[in-house]
Design brief:
By secondary structure, this protein is an alpha/beta fold. The chain has one domain: Alkaline Phosphatase, subunit A. The chain has 15 helices and 17 strands.
Length: about 475
């Protein structure tokens, strides 16, 4: 049965680890507003990004298509409107969509289906991060990740200032504009925290004194999972060794503080929704574009298929949705396209028939779909090959082109410390999951396509040597100026 059309408030954060959320069982992290949202709605406990880095994941969210289908391989291949977005579908049917905050598309002037963009953040110069196109082995070890970890601490950054402005504009829309709209609308509110820099406002950083912080799971070298592709990622970011324990705990405290800061901004938006009475006619989605390893396995930031990086929080709430329930079925960001359309009463086009996602409203209401597969892929920064992940009920399988695969039993081994791929007892499982992966994608073919496209774009900007000479001077996309 189709759901009754309602308004939709879609709230997105950037780089939020699924487990660093009070409602998901974290022992010390304070996220009271998201906790309340989960208590009032449905918490999807096995949600995943379709690519664990910003630009491709947001292109998948917009188009409902995987990176190998929409061509957004990396942070220098931003969405430009060449594939239809859910925004296009809603605009064509007279449904207002307003975005506030980070989109990370190519440019505001592109026809991406989102004409009402407020305080938008897009890729730098309409091009993005060209350094992400350089992916061969043997590059000199970098220090970007190490510097970010060691510089963590209390303070304000352009990102925290930006998020305060995003919350303020979203609240203004809900109080002054939304009550006057006579048709279902969508408000897409996109914060940039807890994305690094690891600089948290003092009142939130101080919530986490160092003596309350434990070292991340499997942080020490002798505890870490190892794989040639992941080991190279650690080396390139300058995080292959063990940093001083206090420095690690300090970085973790800053990340926790940013999660609490972001939660406070979300709280302002949710309070405005309730104060106006719009909560009685509005469904809410909260999620993130990808996670953050936050030190687990000796990793920081994103760009791997470990749970800290690839798994995301996902909460839905609304007047017609169950309260305080959990859904364990696998879902991913490509499910948002059909979910948004159904939520506001819009119809898909015939050309949307091959979209891999499905509306989550039925799953949220308790419909059972056994052994649902989700898919993710990566071709971007600090990766020496393309890699692909599928998750079913019990197992996660990661296929690396030209390198050994990984297999984890997430029920028995949620910390992903025991790679089963080389165990003869699991040879049939590895074979079966590789076949399921190949039903979605040809890894070798897609890896070659991504490489060729990246080489072409490198040449358009002066070639490899010129891009290397310019260096990676901006470690994250600058926030637009705000008051």
């Amino acid at each position: 049965m189709a759901s009754k059309p309602q308004n939709l408030l879609f709230i997105m954060s950037d780089q939020h680890n699924r487990d660093i959320l009070g409602y998901n069982g974290h022992p010390i992290v304070q996220t009271p507003h998201l906790n309340q949202l989960a208590q009032e709605g449905v918490n999807f406990t096995n949600a995943y990004t379709n690519c664990p880095i910003c630009v491709p994941s947001r292109a998948s969210l917009a188009t409902g298509r995987y990176p190998h289908d929409n061509g957004s391989w990396d942070n220098a291949a931003p969405y430009s409107g060449d594939k239809p977005s859910w925004g296009h579908r809603l605009a064509e049917q007279g449904i207002q969509v307003t975005t506030v905050g980070k989109l990370h598309y190519r440019d505001e002037s592109d026809d991406t289906g989102f004409p009402d963009q407020r305080l938008p953040l897009h890729v730098l110069g309409g091009v993005g991060d060209l350094f992400t196109l350089i992916r061969e082995t043997g590059l000199p070890a970098g220090s970007l990740g190490r510097k970010q970890v060691l510089s963590a601490g209390p303070g304000e950054s352009s990102y925290t200032k930006y998020d305060r402005a995003i919350a303020e504009e979203a609240v203004r829309f809900l109080r002054e504009e939304a009550p006057n709209l006579d048709k279902p609308w969508v408000l897409f509110v996109s914060f940039v925290t807890p994305h690094y820099p690891l600089t948290a406002p003092a009142e939130y950083f101080d919530l986490y004194p160092l003596d309350s912080i434990e070292l991340p799971r499997s942080y020490k070298i002798d505890e870490r999972s190892s794989h040639p592709v992941v080991d190279e990622y650690r080396r390139l970011l300058g995080i292959a060794d063990e940093l001083d324990e206090d420095a690690v705990k300090n970085a973790v405290a800053a990340y926790y503080g940013l999660c609490s800061f972001m939660d406070a901004q979300v709280g302002q938006v949710l309070s405005a929704l309730r104060e106006t009475g719009l909560d009685q006619s509005t469904r809410i989605i909260y999620t993130s574009d990808h996670g953050d390893s936050a030190g687990e396995h000796g990793l920081w930031f994103k760009s791997t298929m470990y749970e800290g990086s690839a798994a995301i929080p996902f909460i839905m709430a609304g007047p017609d949705l169950p309260r305080g329930t959990q859904v364990t079925h696998n879902i991913s960001l490509v499910d948002c396209f059909p979910t948004i359309l159904e939520a506001v009463g819009a119809k898909p086009h015939e050309e949307d028939h091959d979209l891999p996602g499905q509306s989550l409203l039925t799953l949220a209401k308790g419909e059972y779909e056994p052994n649902r597969i989700v898919f993710s892929e990566y071709h971007a920064a600090a990766s020496i090959t393309g890699f692909f992940m599928i998750r079913e009920e019990q197992y996660k399988f990661i296929y690396y082109v030209g390198y050994p695969p990984q297999l984890f039993n997430l029920v028995a081994d949620p910390g992903e410390n025991n790679d089963l791929a080389g165990d003869p007892e699991y040879a049939e499982v590895v074979w079966r999951l590789e076949q399921r992966l190949r039903e979605i994608v040809d890894p070798e073919k897609v890896n070659s396509e991504a490489r060729a496209d990246q080489e072409c774009r490198l040449n358009l900007h002066g070639g490899r040597e010129q891009v290397i000479a310019k260096g990676f001077k901006v470690p994250y996309t600058p926030a637009p100026a705000v008051k």
